[in-house]
Model the fold of this input.
Amino acid sequence: MKKVISFLFAGALVFGISCTGGQKKSAEQTEEKAAVVEEVGPNELSKEEKAAGWSLLFDGTTSNGWRGVNKTNFPGGWEVVDGTLHCKGSGMGEAGSDDGGDILYDKEFSNFHLKMDWKIGEGGNSGIFYLGQEVEDWPIWKTAPEMQVLDNERHPDALLGKDGNRKAGSLYDLIPANPQNAKPAGEWNSIEILVYKGTVVHKQNGETVLEYHLWTDDWNNLVKDSKFPELNPDWANVAKSGFIALQDHGDDVWFRNIKIREL
Done:
């Protein structure tokens, strides 16, 4: 399975270094091809990405496709500004504002490669959920794994949990990101989440920081020894298809360049 994941993350290279007539391309040909890869700005797809099946979940100018969890509208606690999805820090804690709350992209995904950039305000906390379910009167974190978004230097969560499993990039409160390479508050971090037939990989700023396997004995034991069964006794049975969501934890956080490739 690790081989499969490696190949998926290296997909662009696999396509770019194909053979013609049974002969390997020369180093010069490969370098020449790499030199002409199109560079694009945030919230845009290159020709290579389009050809590989990537699509944007955020167009940089509207909230199209996004709505509040268990809502039909896009909540006023969020805004589209300067090419970002911005959660306006209410200072009222997790989903504490009447017009805030977590938001989700209104399509379910099962096997996918997700990329995005995030930037957190000073002392801020947020998260990226995946495979989440909408259950009436429940926050989405009661059903979804979470990639932590955090100001590691200032937020107290960085010192809680176990072995740093509440720091940025971690599978929140379960598996720490290693290496811990998050950039400080106010700077952009790039992340990737890959979900493929139960195997999940988190990447942060170009490095793989963790891997785990859903629906296995190891996974069930990990969850059993955590706080999650108290919140939802069935939490370990993560759905095979679900929503991608962004957390309102009462703090300023910005997201951009949100793109996905279904596998």
About this structure: The chain has two domains: 1-37, 43-262. The two ends are 15 Å apart (CA to CA). Confidence is low (pLDDT under 50) at residues 11-25.
